[in-house]
Amino acid sequence: MNSVSAIDAFSALAQPSRLEAFRLLVRHEPDGLPAGEIARRLDVPQNTMSSHLAILARAGLIASERHSRSVIYRARIDGVREMTSFLVSDCCGGNPELCAPLVAEFSSCCTPETANAC
Amino acid sequence: MNSVSAIDAFSALAQPSRLEAFRLLVRHEPDGLPAGEIARRLDVPQNTMSSHLAILARAGLIASERHSRSVIYRARIDGVREMTSFLVSDCCGGNPELCAPLVAEFSSCCTPETANAC
DNA sequence: TCAATATATCGATTATCTTGGATATATTGA
DNA sequence: TCAATATATCCAAGATAATCGATATATTGA
Question: With CB atoms counted within 10 Å of each terminal CB, which end of chain A scores lower, N or C?
Answer without folding.
Answer: C
